[in-house]
Give the backbone structure.
Amino acid sequence: MCDYEIETDLLASQIGEAIHAIRHIHKEDLLLLCEQVYHANGSI
Protein backbone atom coordinates (compact mmCIF):
# COMPACT_ATOMS: atom_id res chain seq x y z
CA MET A 1 0.00 0.00 0.00
CA CYS A 2 1.11 3.54 -0.61
CA ASP A 3 -0.17 6.83 0.65
CA TYR A 4 -1.64 8.94 -2.16
CA GLU A 5 -0.58 12.20 -0.51
CA ILE A 6 3.04 11.07 -0.26
CA GLU A 7 3.04 9.94 -3.88
CA THR A 8 1.58 13.23 -5.17
CA ASP A 9 4.14 15.19 -3.13
CA LEU A 10 6.89 13.06 -4.65
CA LEU A 11 5.49 13.58 -8.14
CA ALA A 12 5.29 17.35 -7.63
CA SER A 13 8.91 17.36 -6.42
CA GLN A 14 10.03 15.42 -9.47
CA ILE A 15 8.20 17.84 -11.76
CA GLY A 16 9.98 20.68 -9.95
CA GLU A 17 13.31 19.03 -10.69
CA ALA A 18 12.28 18.60 -14.32
CA ILE A 19 11.47 22.32 -14.57
CA HIS A 20 15.15 23.05 -13.97
CA ALA A 21 16.59 20.15 -15.98
CA ILE A 22 14.45 19.91 -19.12
CA ARG A 23 14.83 22.62 -21.72
CA HIS A 24 12.67 21.30 -24.60
CA ILE A 25 9.37 21.48 -22.65
CA HIS A 26 8.00 24.92 -21.90
CA LYS A 27 8.47 25.80 -18.24
CA GLU A 28 4.90 27.13 -18.08
CA ASP A 29 3.56 23.70 -19.07
CA LEU A 30 5.51 21.98 -16.30
CA LEU A 31 4.41 24.60 -13.76
CA LEU A 32 0.79 24.03 -14.75
CA LEU A 33 1.25 20.27 -14.42
CA CYS A 34 2.80 20.72 -10.97
CA GLU A 35 -0.13 22.91 -9.91
CA GLN A 36 -2.59 20.28 -11.11
CA VAL A 37 -0.80 17.60 -9.06
CA TYR A 38 -1.13 19.73 -5.93
CA HIS A 39 -4.85 20.26 -6.62
CA ALA A 40 -5.33 16.50 -7.10
CA ASN A 41 -3.65 15.94 -3.74
CA GLY A 42 -6.23 18.03 -1.90
CA SER A 43 -9.22 16.63 -3.77
CA ILE A 44 -9.28 13.29 -1.94
